[in-house]
Amino acid sequence: MSTLTRDEEFLLxxxxxxxxxxxxxxxxFAVGAACESEIGIVxxxxxxxxxxxxxxxxxxxxxxxxxxxGAKRFxxxxxxxxxATADTRPETGMCCGACRQVMAELMPQNALVIIDGIGTxxxxxxxxxxxxxxxxxxxxxxxxx
Length: 145
Ligand code: THU
Fold this sequence. Notes:
Blueprint: H1 6-19, E1 31-37, E2 40-45, H2 58-68, E3 74-81, H3 97-106, E4 112-115, E5 119-122, H4 123-126
Parallel strand pairs: 3-4
Antiparallel strand pairs: 1-2, 1-3, 4-5
The chain binds tetrahydrodeoxyuridine (THU).
């Protein structure tokens, strides 16, 4: 895994911290995410439901919470699946397709997604050809310098 900057390491630590609040009585798979934008860092965790399909992933919890607080320009998101260990397959720590689609809508395509123990990817690397209806979503913009 590539070396993280101090800011990236801090964001990842926030994601790990968010996983402590995961509500995952069904999967016992605790996930935390932290997204960075012009309003600062907003954290989220996975929240499951007895009606399994209603469960929400950590990435979407974090992004939706940030949007709800007024965030518009996302720069980075860190993700930590605390149950994914060195002896599980790397795919176990990756983000799901639904979250990639949401990232592609809300985040610039060259925004970074830092995945604990795996590596750093751009949003476009995670989902090269997302479904989009509008031309003016964040996904069309580049990260601000
Ligand atoms: N999960 C996430 O929070 N993010 C992902 O990208 C993959 C899956 C959660 C959903 C569910 O609560 C648990 O992990 C097992 O699938």
